[in-house]
Write a structure and sequence with these properties.
Length: 329
């Protein structure tokens, strides 16, 4: 539901004393393998959306595992188990972040004996694909269909009445509104299609979407409650390149796409000074308009740990985002 400008302005607050990154490091800093850390984030991070919000029609999944800490600790420390994860990830057909996250989750569901099927294409004919089941799971004895999404969205502006389409992907290719409409109206209806029945040995009793991600707001101003988003959703900032001011005493890393999930943990040798980060950003934007995810790091013992993250965007990004929002509406 749209939120008025007055309601939205009153909800803005600066980040609290314990950021999500701090919480993550307290719980998972002992994990060393980057794939295991990414899996820890996928399974333990706050959901992006509020499952109780009326606009999601009860179709937002949430998941908890009381034995997760011990299971992940063993996965991280036992070489044979870790090699199994690496081999599983090594079969990815591409480096797309969504596929990487989905593969991690499939590994977990398979190891926990919850997975019935994964990435099942449904075709009406050889050349007519209806859709694809992300996950068919056995939960509490029932067959359920879960769609899965890991998304990163930036809020371009707080002006006016906000809608889900105001949250845009960093490359302006999609929006939170468009993504959720596709999931709710099309993807979660797949089990009802006649062509899907050949893949189902019993009725699907529940269809839901598990949605994880990070939301980014201009200059660290975060709305407390809006658009059915979880109040505890992972958050960061965004800023244009010309407005960026780096802390000269901090360390940084430009995060590659497959390291966007969990808060960063890197060696000192892989960290950049403020001057080096600034130069790397200038070099990137000299030939590429894609926003860059920048992690701010603090040295803790042998490693540098992420304290905050933000998308650095080209100076014309905000103008293009306004045009995209108007076109969507």
């Amino acid at each position: 539901m749209p939120v008025s400008q007055n309601e939205f302005a009153g909800a803005f607050a600066m980040i609290g004393s314990a950021s999500y990154q701090e919480q993550f490091h307290r719980r998972w800093n002992h994990l060393l393998d980057p794939h295991v850390r990414a899996l820890a984030w996928l399974l333990d991070a706050p959901d992006l959306l509020d499952p109780h919000a009326v606009q999601w029609q009860g179709q937002i999944a949430t998941y908890t595992d009381p034995d997760l800490a011990s299971w992940l600790g063993e996965l991280d420390q036992v070489p044979q188990k870790l090699q199994g994860l690496h081999s599983y990830i090594g079969s990815l057909p591409s480096t797309r972040l969504g596929l990487y996250a989905e593969k991690l989750l499939a590994f977990y569901f398979e190891q926990r004996q919850l997975l019935v099927a994964h990435s099942v294409q449904v075709r009406a004919s050889k050349n007519d694909t209806i859709g694809e089941f992300d996950f068919l799971l056995r939960l509490h004895g029932d067959l359920v269909h879960w769609e899965f999404a890991t998304k990163f969205y930036l809020l371009e502006s707080s002006a006016g009445s906000l809608q889900a389409d105001d949250f845009l992907g960093p490359n302006l290719a999609d929006s939170l509104g468009a993504k959720m409409q596709k999931i709710l109206k099309r993807q979660l209806a797949l089990s009802q299609h006649p062509a899907a029945q050949i893949h189902l040995t019993e009725p699907v009793v529940s269809t839901q979407a598990l949605v994880k991600g990070w939301l980014f707001f201009l200059d660290h101003l975060y709305p407390a409650s809006v658009l059915g988003v979880s109040a505890s959703a992972c958050r960061g900032y965004w800023r244009s390149l010309s407005a960026l001011a780096l802390n000269e005493s901090a360390l940084y890393q430009l995060l590659p796409r497959q390291r966007w999930l969990a808060p960063a943990k890197v060696t000192l040798a892989d960290a950049l000074t403020a001057a080096q980060a600034r130069q790397a950003l200038l070099q990137h934007f000299a030939s590429d308009a894609a926003p860059v995810l920048l992690a701010t790091l603090q040295l803790e013992g042998e490693y540098c740990l992420e304290t905050e993250r933000g998308f650095i965007v080209p100076d014309d990004w905000a103008g293009r985002a306004v045009a995209q929002r108007h076109a969507s509406r």
